[in-house]
Each structure stands twice: as C-alpha cells, then as structure tokens.
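Subject: Protein record for review, amino acid sequence with backbone structure tokens
Concerning: The relation between a protein's sequence and the shape of its backbone.
How to read it: Take the token row as a discrete description of the fold.
Enclosed: The protein record, placed directly beneath this head.
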Amino acid sequence: MFNQKFATGPSHLSLAIYSSEGNWIKEHPIGGLPNAEKTAWKNNFRSYFRKLILQKKDIHTCILSSEHLSARRTNATELKHLLKTCFNEFTIIIYLKPQSTLCVSRYSTQIKAKRDEDDFFNEKYIAHFYNYSNALRQWIDNFGKENIKIRILDDSPNGIENVTEDFSDLVGIKSLNFPNLDRRENQSFDAGSLDLLLLLNKLVNKEQLDYPKKLKQKITNTIAKLPTGDRKWPAKQEAIEFDLKFSDDNQYLADLFFDGRVLFQVDYNRYPDEATPISDPEVLFEKLSVITPQISTAAKVSGYEQEWHEIHKALEKNIRTLAV
C-alpha cells in the first residue's frame, strides 16, 4: 500500500512522521518546515490516508508495517486518532528479542549509519531502546492489552525460526510469496568490515572531512558485498550483565502477557570469553584494497573524486598508525 520513498503522500515513513512527537527524519519533506506548513502537511496526510483506505470497499484487513513506528518518538495516541477514523478493530503485533541480542545487531546498524562508538552496550540508549515495558506502555494504554500480541525471538527450543511465516500465520495469510525471500538482506558485517567502517566514521567525524551521502552509501554497500568472516562480539560476561539490567522489566512483561514464565531464553555460549579485538591492520588494508577500485570509479562518475581521495589517504594513514 505504501511506497518506500520519501513521498509527500502516504508512505511508511510519512505514517511514522505523522505519528511522531518530532521531525526526526531530516530527509522527509516535512523536515524544516514552519509550524503552519507542518500543520497543513499533517491535515493533507490525514485526508489522503483516509481517502486511500476508505476507497477500498472490499478490504476487511489492512496491515500497516514500518520499523519507524517502534521508534521512541512515536506517539501512539496520535496514531490511534488517525486509525480510528478508518478502522473499528486493531491488533498490534510486536516482536521482541533479548536485549543483548538486539544490542549486538543494533551496534552493526549504528556503525553503518556513520556512528563512531566502540561500546556495544552504550548506557545512554538503555531507557529509549531496551526498556521494553516503557516502550510498550503507551501502546497498552491506547490500544488495550487484549489487542497486543507479543512474539518472542530468542534461543528457546520452540522459538520462532522464520518471522515472515510467523507473521503470515498470525494475520491469516496463507503465504507471503515475496521474491528472493530466502536471500538474506541487511546482514551484519564481519569484524574486519565493521572495524574498517568504524575507523572511517571516526576519521570523518573527528577531522570533519567532506563526506557526501552518496559516497558514504557507496562505501557501505561495497563493504556489504565483501566475503564475510567472523562476527564482532562483546564478551560473554558483558552480555550477561547487560541483560540483568532488564530482569525486573522483562519479568513485568512476562507476568502481564505470559503468565509469569521467563520472557527470554538466551544461549550465552555464542559469546566469547573476551570481546573481539580490533582487526589487524593487514586485514583492514586487504579490505580497503578490495573496495578501492569500485569506490574510485563510482566517485569519479559522481563527481566526488577529490573527497574520496582525501578520505582514502587519511584512512590509509590511520590504519598504519594501528600497526605501530
């Protein structure tokens, strides 16, 4: 129903922006508009949304899916007011995974997004991203506990193996026949690729190098296509201690939705005793040498040849510094 682009009409991002407490996606058309124009945009979106939904007379179920609706800035009350103009019944389906597991995945995502933090378990994100009961409270208050289904992604023997199949079963769809469904997308980078990208992010942010968005995307996409090796892991004890921070919070949800059983089962044996060290300079140089021809060609075509030259030169210098 909703296209994936930053459109002025309905899109999954427009829906999230409409339901947010702030303009947190700068690339969206609403970003930076004066308040009067923002109000006009929201009114237009509301009208367009209702028209789009209500013209489908033969549809009895509508699925609205956007990762941005789970963001900490989402205002569930605002979303409910919009949806009540079109729908009589609601079901909120939420997938949760152990906080340590989410944290490892999110670390990789953050590095891809140009962050330059070394710490897997950054304390400043705890309340916003990992305290699930806080995140769910407004959904419970607005839509009712009886209309919320929580699905658990953990290491239990009977755990969910395929989210797509599980979701299709829940909503009563016989089969979600997406093309290339078996092909994994957005996979986590291996340790060497993450370290190379982290080094690049630190370099760009510290020295304030000119780093055009198209060049950044090309570098990230090229690194993503490299052969993968061992992943980057925090230490086992770090992961255990991080999850312990949420034991009371998780038990509250377990009591509320699962009759008090343990919310997550985690196999901590996947984590090494010691955190993965930074990759050897030889590994970083090898990865850099593989991606350089493709990036150089793309930068030349896009007019970012000078910016790439400066970044490449500084990156080589920083890798050599690691070798000292």
Residues 1-90 form one domain.
